[in-house]
Amino acid sequence: MSYTVLARKWRPQTFDDLIGQETVVKTLKNAIASEKVVHAYLFSGPRGIGKTSAARILAKALNCSPGPTSEPCGNCANCLAIVKGSSLDVLEIDGASNTGVDDVRELRETVKYAPSSGRYKIYIIDEVHMLSTQAFNALLKTLEEPPSHVIFIFATTEPKKVPSTILSRCQHHAFRKIPKAKIKERLLKISQAENINIREAAVEMIARTADGSMRDALTILDQASSFSDDISEKELQNLLGLPEADIILSMSDTILSGDISKTLSMIKELTERGYDLRHIIKELVEHFRNIAIVKIIQKPDEFLEFTDEEIQNLQRHASLVNLEELTLLVTELLRLESEVKSAVNPRYSLELGLLRTSFIKGMTSIPELLKKLDSAESRNHNILSTGKTEECTPFKKKPLPDSLSKSETSDKNKVWSEIIEKLQSNDPLLVCKLAEAKIIDITNKELTIGFNGGMSVLSDSVKKNTSMIETIIKDITGNKLRLKIISLSEGGKGINEVKEKVFSNPLVRNAMELFNGKLLEVKSLEDKESV
Fold first, then answer.
1. Are 28 and 15 in contact (CB under 8 A)?
2. Which of 170, 173, 312, 366 could bond to 42 as cystine, CB 3.0-4.6 Å?
3. CA distances to 151, 154, 168, 181, 529 from 129, in Å
4. Which range in 157-171, 251-265, 452-466 is most confidently predicted, on average pLDDT?
5. CATH at residue 89
6. Are 123 and 150 contacting, i.e. CB atoms less than 8 angstroms apart?
7. Phi and psi of 92, rounded to 5°?
């Protein structure tokens, strides 16, 4: 005698057997009771959640001998024929195999004939989105005005691929993923009825792995029962290659701590032990999503189906990361899950992706950046009031040349202070950078400022604001002056002056002419810094 798999043996036979679809069940029952059955239904949702089973149950409810009834007897000739798939009035068509317009034309020819024994002739088309455009067009007229004895029931996992012209002619029912708790309850009931010895922790793992699909859960249970007479969590992990909870917790610890070296070592170990890395990243995504739930919701135990110990682990991880970092981590892991799923080498994709996540930990949040900006603005205010610039940057200033007389220096510094003070209200960060510069000279055409040594890196960012600074210079001096920015060498000379001096050296000139060379850079031999 051939063996019947659990997914077929325990297929729902009544509306009450359709767990997790209470809204759809209530709507269909009320429609039958109030005689408001429409001529076309569309059942959509993920795989293995009861769409085709619901279509068969609805067919039995409408053609049951004592009916129509929301509780088909299951014992009459019509019910038994539908269960066996031999009913002449209930035709199941695979949309993936019968995609052509000729198949639909043949269907249209049979629609006109009355049912042989039941009240209705019911067409169940599975994976209806696989029909061709021409086939859908051929079906339109029949679907809009079918004979009174005909009912269409379409099932699909991708309703967005069904043309809007078809959708508008159907009553659409969206099936949901089955909650983990209900899958677990159903598995325990079936295990007891089938005399399958399985630990509750293993049932919990199957329910979590099934991801809302009752059919997937029963398929895994069937596989596990063939593997062992006493199914434990450890055996199930070895059978399916599923990551252990401790592995996910440990890997999450390394990600949250930014310890990429340890993370890569764990991936190497998991690969050598034969774990499916696609399951690893899937579990990581779910774990970090749960961390986010715990981080946001005050009573996560009412939202998540976890034990107290699992909730505590999630709370511990939530305390290690701020919400901004957590958002970036979940976003990056979701992206990584997609990459690993389609990768030729999942290990390399996973390693590279987790390397990217290590950069996220330790990033400065927006509120912290705003605090630092406020702090910088406060320091700038102190600089303007005291005349000291050392606090604007950790770099130590180097002495500037004393080429100007004391009176000239005083006048020019006064003008420069007024420019700085005027800029304070426009751009505090720019003021902090300019505080590292010293005024070199003012002529009737230009104002020259210089940056010392390591501070010369600030000149590029200052140059971007040249037009604004020149406008303020004109307001203060009354003259339209060009802002000239130079870098100063250790001795206080401008870099152009230093280059000219080097280029004038006869030995250097002869060498450049001999090798047809160019002078690219001048470096100080004392501190090895570019000037």
1. yes
2. 170
3. 18, 9, 15, 31, 68
4. 157-171
5. 3.40.50.300
6. yes
7. -100, 125
Distances (CA, A) of 329 to 88, 245, 317, 362: 56, 19, 13, 12
Question: Can you tell me which residue has the tokens 């998540």?
Answer: 304
Last residue of a domain, one of 303, 329, 360: 360
More confident residue, 396 or 321: 321
Record the tokens describing residue 271, joined without a space.
Answer: 């690969």
Query: Comparing C-alpha atoms, which of 35, 36, 39 is closest to residue 151?
Result: 39
Q: Find where tokens 């991880």 sit.
A: 317
List the structure tokens of 415.
Answer: 């003008």
Residue 502 lies in a domain: no
CA distances for 465 relative to 296, 304, 477, angstroms:
42, 53, 18
What are the tens digits of pLDDT across the range 409-445?
Answer: 556 777 778 888 877 777 777 777 777 777 787 887 8
Q: Which of 102, 90, 101, 79 is nearest to 126 (CA)?
A: 90
Residues 137 and 55 in one domain: yes
Pairing of strands 437-442, 446-452: antiparallel
| pLDDT score for 391 | 44
**31 & 144 share domain:** yes
Please check whether residues 345 and 451 belong to one and the same domain: no
Position 44: which residue type?
S
- Is the Cβ–Cβ distance between 454 and 432 less than 8 Å? no
- Per the omega criterion (within 30 degrees of 0), is the bond before 68 cis? yes
In this structure, are residues 65 and 73 in contact, taking their beta carbons and an 8 Å threshold?
Answer: yes
Q: Give me the DSSP letters along 467-508.
A: HHHHHHHHHHHSS--EEEEEEE-TTS-BHHHHHHHHHHSHHH
Q: Can you give the residue range of the structural domain that contains 454?
A: 369-488
State pLDDT tens for residues 490-501: 444 555 565 666
- At 324 the pLDDT is 81
**Domain identity same for 410 and 454:** yes
| Burial environment of residue 140 by CB neighbours within 10 A (0 to 12, 13 to 18, 19 or more) | middle
Q: What is the pTM of this model?
A: 0.57
The per-residue pLDDT for range 296-338, each reduced to its tens digit, is 887 776 677 676 777 888 888 888 888 888 888 888 889 888 8
Question: Lowest mean pLDDT: which of 55-64, 249-258, 309-318, 409-418?
Answer: 409-418
- More confidently predicted of 266 and 530: 266
